[in-house]
Write a structure and sequence with these properties.
This protein is α+β, with helices and mostly antiparallel strands. It has one domain: Sandwich (Jelly Rolls), CATH 2.60.120.10. About 40% of the residues lie in helices and about 25% in strands. The protein contains five helices and eight strands, in the order H-H-E-E-E-E-E-E-H-E-E-H-H. Strand 4 and strand 5 form a beta hairpin. The radius of gyration is 16 Å and the shape is globular.
Length: about 150
């Protein structure tokens, strides 16, 4: 099963800068978790201390709108990640995650990530660069969406 975990990691964009040996190094700090359709991985506002990577299945990202109504803002499939901000900040979850299908997740806790940074700093830096790249892409997408709803300059 250990080799299978590394095979999944190689398909996740955050880990694209890691070579096979580095993937084998970090898999020791991760584990699989299964979720069933309708089950929440976590809910908006909860404290978060782990990130999940979708190994199989599909997950809805749900955010409360201005009327406190839940809205699906995207659906993540294999290779997607959720909760990466939890490794960086210590704030609450910014959205809820609910399984659409039976799904297998790879989990990395903040404690595991901190051990990677301490014991394998070169690998930790590569992961941080992957997270920064993903957050940058997400921020650009959000800015583009926001611009659609903003009035033009007069």
């Amino acid at each position: 099963m250990s080799e299978r975990l590394a095979d999944h990691l190689s398909l996740i964009p955050i880990f694209s800068g890691l070579n096979p040996q580095e993937l084998q190094t970090i898999e020791k700090y991760m584990f699989f978790n299964k979720v069933e359709p309708g089950e929440f991985v976590f809910k908006e506002g909860e404290k978060g201390d782990y990130v999940c990577f979708v190994a199989s299945g599909a997950l809805d990202v749900i955010k409360l709108n201005q009327n406190a109504q839940p809205v699906v803002i995207t659906t993540l499939a294999k290779g997607g990640s959720i909760g990466e901000m939890a490794l960086i900040d210590k704030l609450t979850r910014s959205a809820s995650i609910r399984a659409c299908t039976s799904s297998s997740l790879i989990v990395l806790t903040r404690k595991g990530f901190e051990l990677i940074l301490k014991l394998h700093p070169e690998v930790g830096i590569k992961i941080l660069k992957g997270i920064a790249s993903l957050l940058s892409i997400n921020l650009r997408k959000t800015s583009d969406k926001l611009a659609e709803f903003m009035p033009p300059l007069a």
